[in-house]
């Protein structure tokens, strides 16, 4: 029995060691990005030995990033032009101009809208694939899966054409809608929803639930963890989209990857500003993760059926 | 509903002549066919900034409204090509590198400006070497902007410390010999293994070489190409060359610290060096690139852009865009403004007479480098960029790397490269 | 509130490359407001039949009618039935209150307060009023089962389908729930199909009992009918606990000769006419220990409190007898027994068909309450 | 229950009224046979899918039988109703070449090289990454581990790092005198030519991609782990299973659908590798040993403007990867899962 | 094969903000090789106790010893116990063969062929030999339960823990399995803790029976002891089916006066000395219908085949009687009953403690086989 306690301790130690090692290896490049963001560009470039102590130029780099003419990274208060004159003073009311979006806010906005929309579409489709029988189910599933492979590099041209035909160029919808039915998300939901016991759905049917109610009253709540994972996937997918936003969006609407790429000049790469932008752009994701990972509650289906 | 072209009567071909407008000459817009009010021009980096300088004078004189959109170079290309290929969303005019010109022209997405060009009569004012890739079947698709006359920049302090006098160097072989005076941890120049084609093209052009013959056969295994390959091989073998990826941070660092002592590049490089390595100001000098063989030509080019108008924009917009282009690129004083402010080296020959080129350059320790480049510019041999330029780039890089590793002799390398290009592009060998 | 009619209902499953016939052409009419109990050995197809009625399984062939409506192709929620699942199938993310109220919430226009009140009533009836805030995984097996039950009985459906709804409850609670269910069913007058493996429950609750075996329906009738007048050996054997004692006997005129000492002279030989041998059945409670009768050797005596079970050896056959708690032979003791001819069962040795059952007057087919289906 | 005396019904609260409205809506929703319900759930996704991706996908397929001859803006169809006018212009001048684009692939050595590179990276990278992700997920699901949230977040962060920034840092780290070699040499190991040898440059890509995507896959697996019934671990524990045996006999089979997901999507991801080799290896250096298929497609389409050929390449890619995924799904027991 | 000792075992659960005491300081010694049956109402903590013994729950306080080893902190797999889960917990991805053989595969060095052979033996014993290739979700409830049972009995553990292992089986199969299990347990001589809610099973199988209520242990003793000599009203009420009839009666000298017509003269008044009122208990089987006795009005007569249950009204109290199947009063009929004083139970009206039970000679504490724990 002491033997076992010892073995348990070894297991735990190994697990911790593994996690810590992983965390450190993961953090090194990220940390370096952060360090680079705090260094003067010359310092960053001229060090031959890797430099691991942060400098103090973060704010300065941030300011030079913000001072760029062609990209706005973080937005700023907008000029509200709509107001009511009460005689004794004005009240501004144009909420859309409360804040002029920078790339950071654009990205957040687009990713949030996209994530919400796509969560709905993907979970519905995944539910259909996991829990219903219908004709052409398999071929349809495989067809959707196959589109996962389509390289965006080739789709850009016809997609651009399509968007301009329907008047969506330079619109956030143009980068939200095409992948709203994300094959990846459909696939994930389908895989996870297979673990919902059929008996659960049956008992809800007996209770008079419509098929749609099965979906949002039974399937969604019991798939909380998977939805959280999917939300992360979708958010990141949109967060990292580059080529199509670059092509379809015009200056002023750029998302983060596009904006950062503008710092890669023909002859000059603004490393300091890139690193500042990259560092800042990680913050929303940290927040997102910390919020969503709480949804990973284990044994969510426990107690439902005897088997 | 019906089929047919609703705009039949106003296609671009008729645009210039039909309206009888001479507003496109760049001097007046008061008459002639209607021009759109607003134009948007895409450019990258300093080029875009330099266009900005001309906006105010243009608007003052010609009216209209000009927006310059600054987009990163690679991004601009992706974005612009997408708009070209999908037939919508393109700007009124955009910057186009000469290297890309042939293939872009070939897409059919660019507007023929030859009528306007001939009408304006400014064609001959540009260095003749620029036109090749901008033309196809007798039509012209872009207006030249800048050229990149090549010079070899060097660290004066490093060279003199080791007793090297670049101004006396005439040929590459000489230069290599001089370079051997440098200690082991210092290199005369950088020969990046990811970018052999750049150096090869520069030297090949210097010799007047053409990648394809006039009837389209692959010519990169010509004697001239072989000469260049041998030189490059000699540089590598002699140990005077560093191998750092171009534009990488290490690459810049090496120049800053003097571990790489010289750099052969377009005239625009001075601006870049100034921006990146400001604290080495005054320690630099420049001389004409060494000749391949004694007495050989020492004029060549690296880089250079043009402005082009997509076909998809309306005629009114195109006319305005042309008007703007002709104004900014075709007029001496504006080109000079750009040169003085951002070091954009004009392709407009008439500018070379200006004493702007005679100013001593502080970064280059007071050297009057402008004049040197201005002398080189008109002598640059033309070079036939085609849609298959990328294939050439690829092939040269691949096989020269093999050659450098000793896997192939120079002869084998150029032959293999030529064969690869021929295979991939369906062309004959010259 | 309607008759449920199963017409040659058949259900097959694909399992790997074989087809399993779970329900084999069943014909059954469950009368309006009737409480029908479905019994049969484990795996005989009770659950599957119930699921077909509920609309949870596509039938392979046959039809199901509610009243005059063919509901065979209707989906579960359109049939308006309530069901207790054998494996509970509780909603894991809802607490007990929500689990029970879910059906009402979905299908009625009642206010939340009303629903809550009803949920509390039901919970009280089931003795789970303290657990309303808990999630299924925090409940004991019996509590889970009661929640599953509550979920069904709160509704006012066309039919109740209950699959062993009390199997995890203790005797006291079970008998209490049984009464409650009966009262409820009676008040609502809802047609009910009730699966149980518990004899007592089947006997006590069912208006009629349907006995299944191996996918086929054996007999449908009142508790008494299936007990006293089984149509075949299987039903006789299955119904009654402890089971009927069954053995082979040769027929010799009016004499039956069985294992060991067994010999019996029949007063009425009509049932065995034409048979050389028959299967003989005697229920344990019909065995009387007498001073002079058929000798058996006591093997085990199981005290049951109010009576004793006696397991004895009859020529290598185990014989079970229910005897008074005062009778206490020790293992090894030889005792002697007899029984009434009235209490004797005789079956065809080949087909298992009943030749004679307990009370001749109530033979199947002659009594209106007894229907017979031989599988 | 039975006692629904409607008279005593309290006046419904606002929430109830909302519920009734929802109820009447949802009960009016189409309620056709099961076969149709599946379609109805699919409909929104399918609609978005066909509207936005259908045309590009079909157009690409169409293109793969043609040679692109340049842009065209000739009008092929128009009408003008006064208040509404429509003009459809031809997109491109195309020459039909039949299957030529596909047959040309057979002798395209660069394509073969790209396919080889990708396969090579795939064979090393996918197993490595999936194994790592699985171990991390299981470790971070263990009850004894503290600060789970922080660790999960840290491990999953790389995927959010900006591509340019992270590639730059990788480039710096992997240089001959970079951090990695610095560490290697300081512990007495030889320096490795991470960027210049064809083998090691592929390994650099493997490293970069693994670094970036392991945490992401871990998150997915972690979500999958939550659906594994706890009672199975208890049963296994009683059966005497060790930690590893529980992992082997309970976790793995229960996680199978999600594992399949991870394997299939990682495989696809590897086939779609593009940015990393471009930035870290300058587009295929050394000697085309890191050029990937998508990179080649990009080059063909965007640099060489051989749109037809690029489309054919794409469809071959789809065919190859679909085949591979189908094999994975079937080997992974999709059939009876 | 060792004694299992629970020493003030306590288990609390956190549920939301309250703490639920599932097992409340239980002391219990299960002897080496003993077959102990744990009974009690649903939710009383049987499963939780079992899971604590198995090592699947961390105990809140108290210790568990196997023989002399304190195993409280040991993990389940080191305790070497086999368990049948109330909710089966079959491995869904393994077929029946693998499910059953899994434990052997992991914990022994036997060859696959050996294991296979044993699996087949066990499957045959359980009557599931045809299902070896099937997956759990293709099985009926009873079949699943048998697989779960098979998984436990194939092993040769220190202890068997079985949680209602037969609850989904029909009577016939159940009694058959019961015998099999007993034989097996006897052969292996393995200490066994067996949870059931079935009276008969508890009585028939247990060497001793432990009665739990609300987390506490009420009484441990032989079947007869808990039946005849319950320590308190709860045990008396819980054990026995139908349940004992219980009502209040005032004590007036040697006379007990209860609801309705109830009046009884005690021969021996010692038990009631000092009490003004007591709880009176009479088991249904001790009630005899006589011509002249205490009058009751028949309400329901439930025919059980071999006997009838009579539910009658005694001054507003329901009285249950087990009567001969020949006795058939109709609802509304007034009948009359009596009982022996020996058969009378008396309890303290406040504490519920037993004052008099059936056989005075076997009062708890006086008999070596009976232990008593009052909760
Ligand atoms: N995980 C849990 N969280 C909170 N409460 C629990 C949990 N598990 C059990 N309980 C509670 O503990 C009490 C005892 O449960 P247990 O499962 O031991 O009952 P049981 O005696 O086995 O009942 P049954 O016969 O119904 O199976 C019950 O009231 C139950 O609600
Ligand atoms: N999904 C399925 N796939 C294959 N076979 C099945 C499936 N469901 C049930 N069966 C088989 O059909 C037969 C009948 O099963 P059913 O569940 O109806 O039995 P049951 O009478 O309810 O038994 P129990 O009393 O044990 O619950 C069984 O032999 C079972 O193995
Ligand atoms: Mg069943
Ligand atoms: Mg329990």
UniProtKB/TrEMBL annotation, chain A:
It comes from the Archaea. It is a multi-pass membrane protein. Pfam families: BPD_transp_1. Its main location: membrane. GO terms for biological process: transmembrane transport. Residues 104-292 form the ABC transmembrane type-1 domain. The chain crosses the membrane at residues 12-34, 108-129, 141-166, 172-189, 227-249, 269-292. It is found in: Cell membrane. One of its GO terms (cellular component) is plasma membrane. InterPro entries: MetI-like, MetI-like_sf. Keywords: Cell membrane, Membrane, Transmembrane, Transmembrane helix, Transport. Belongs to the binding-protein-dependent transport system permease family. This is ABC transporter permease subunit. It comes from Halomarina oriensis.
TrEMBL record, chains C, E:
Part of the ABC transporter complex XacGHIJK involved in the uptake of xylose and arabinose. Responsible for energy coupling to the transport system. It catalyses: D-xylose(out) + ATP + H2O = D-xylose(in) + ADP + phosphate + H(+); L-arabinose(out) + ATP + H2O = L-arabinose(in) + ADP + phosphate + H(+). It is an enzyme of class 7 (translocase). This is ABC-type D-xylose/L-arabinose transporter. Residues 353-375 have a biased composition (Basic and acidic residues). Gene3D superfamilies: 2.40.50.100, Nucleic acid-binding proteins, P-loop containing nucleotide triphosphate hydrolases. It is a peripheral membrane protein. Keywords: ATP-binding, Cell membrane, Membrane, Nucleotide-binding, Translocase, Transport. GO terms for biological process: carbohydrate transport. InterPro entries: AAA+_ATPase (IPR003593), ABC_transporter-like_ATP-bd (IPR003439), ABC_transporter-like_CS (IPR017871), ABC_transpr_MalK-like (IPR015855), ABC_transpr_MalK/UgpC-like (IPR047641), Mo/tungstate-bd_C_term_dom (IPR008995), NA-bd_OB-fold (IPR012340), P-loop_NTPase (IPR027417). It is found in: Cell membrane. One of its GO terms (cellular component) is ATP-binding cassette (ABC) transporter complex, substrate-binding subunit-containing. Residues 4-239 form the ABC transporter domain. One of its GO terms (molecular function) is ABC-type transporter activity. Its main location: membrane. Pfam families: ABC_tran, TOBE_2. Residues 352-375 are annotated as: Disordered. Its EC number is 7.5.2.13. Belongs to the ABC transporter superfamily. Carbohydrate uptake transporter-1 (CUT1) (TC 3.A.1.1) family. The lineage of its organism: Archaea, Methanobacteriati, Methanobacteriota, Stenosarchaea group, Halobacteria. The complex is composed of two ATP-binding proteins (XacJ and XacK), two transmembrane proteins (XacH and XacI) and a solute-binding protein (XacG). SUPFAM superfamilies: MOP-like, P-loop containing nucleoside triphosphate hydrolases.
From TrEMBL, chain D:
This is ABC transporter permease subunit. Its main location: membrane. Residues 115-328 form the ABC transmembrane type-1 domain. Keywords: Cell membrane, Membrane, Transmembrane, Transmembrane helix, Transport. The chain crosses the membrane at residues 36-65, 119-142, 154-173, 179-196, 307-327. GO terms for biological process: transmembrane transport. The keyword ATP-binding does not apply. SUPFAM superfamilies: MetI-like. The keyword Transport applies. It is a multi-pass membrane protein. InterPro entries: ABC_transporter_permease (IPR051393), MetI-like (IPR000515), MetI-like_sf (IPR035906). It holds the Pfam family BPD_transp_1. It comes from the Archaea. It is found in: Cell membrane. One of its GO terms (cellular component) is plasma membrane. Gene3D superfamilies: MetI-like. Belongs to the binding-protein-dependent transport system permease family.
